[in-house]
Protein: Phosphate-specific transport system accessory protein PhoU
Organism: Kaistia hirudinis
Amino acid sequence: MSEHIVSRYDDELKDVQRRIAEMGGIAERLVDLSVTALTRIDTVMANTVIMEDRRLDEIQRQCEEEAIRIIARRQPMALDLREVIGAMRISNDLERIGDLAKNNAKRVLALDGQFQSKRFMTGVEHMAELSLAQLKDVLDAYATRDVHQAFEVWKRDADIDSMYTSLFRELLTYMMEDPRNISLCTHLLFCAKNIERIGDHTTNIAETVHYVVTGEALTQDRPKQDESSVTTVTYADN
Amino acid sequence: MSEHIVSRYDDELKDVQRRIAEMGGIAERLVDLSVTALTRIDTVMANTVIMEDRRLDEIQRQCEEEAIRIIARRQPMALDLREVIGAMRISNDLERIGDLAKNNAKRVLALDGQFQSKRFMTGVEHMAELSLAQLKDVLDAYATRDVHQAFEVWKRDADIDSMYTSLFRELLTYMMEDPRNISLCTHLLFCAKNIERIGDHTTNIAETVHYVVTGEALTQDRPKQDESSVTTVTYADN
């Protein structure tokens, strides 16, 4: 390849990576805003999340189109091909993270004016803080192609899953205490599930960083501690 | 390209498509089994789903590796490239459908021995029937590269979303009627949500069929009728 072509190709790859960095910034912001909107039942902030998520969808489409164009025109091999495939995967995960933040924001609209209790929010807030920290770390790991940092993020996902399982039990107990809690706690259960899913997409990104850098899939079994699906709380009739 | 190479390339593409067809068959079976397991609270059947989902994960990994190998070695263009990209996307969606069926199966294990009522199951069963019919149709559309059939599937997803929204309201009402319903109905809410997500992945597949055949993305706004996120039921204290 002539130097001229190589340099244009490099520019194209960098352009895709620049879009991923932009998507990462927006996704972080949406996760952060959606949880603040939830804990304050702030519908203005919730509507901002819903609006801004569109931008994420738009960049994701551009990113994917650009990646496919690079494959078709430049026929990348080895590391370059992994970079392009990796960018497609990560842009997908970031777009899904935006959708999940948007879904939480929509629930704020449902909860506006409903019976509320601050104490129910604490667990969701803690889960969100942890998942946001994980998201920041994995985006750093991608930016610096740091496999070790990616692996640390990947391992820590089990903590989010454990928090989710105990929060599931807690919210079910609140519902049984007082039927007026049912609507709020059901939406909070789904918010918590969305945050747990954000954690899963963050773990996917960690796996992609590993694949891009090493060319190998992370073969260990995923650290999975979400036991909520097999958890119930039995109502004790007093 | 020599005829010999072209024919090996064709074989590789067909091999990927054969794997997708196998995945489609397994995904249909898992969705079907998981719902029957749920309506009968049949833990043996539920465990079968959990076991068989591993096979789906395994084929998905093979499928993706094979697709990347084809891109690297054969440098496909135009329709061939779309076929490979399409196969990667569809295998991803089918793998996720398997995960969602597995999650519903896990909930059967949680509900075993809990307070149950047949009448709560009807709505989930109907949703599942519709989403299974959609999945079959979209796999047909993929097998025959039928854009019109894919578009019909795509449009009908709105029906699943509407069913989900009314089921959400119904299950919340049951919880408010009697706190002994809370555990069961919460799990059924998540099962319904999982089926709604299966519908979304089916819609993704319809979009991919459209992309593979026409080279264009489906640009219309997605038919989205899931209003459950903004739905609440207020407890009327009698």
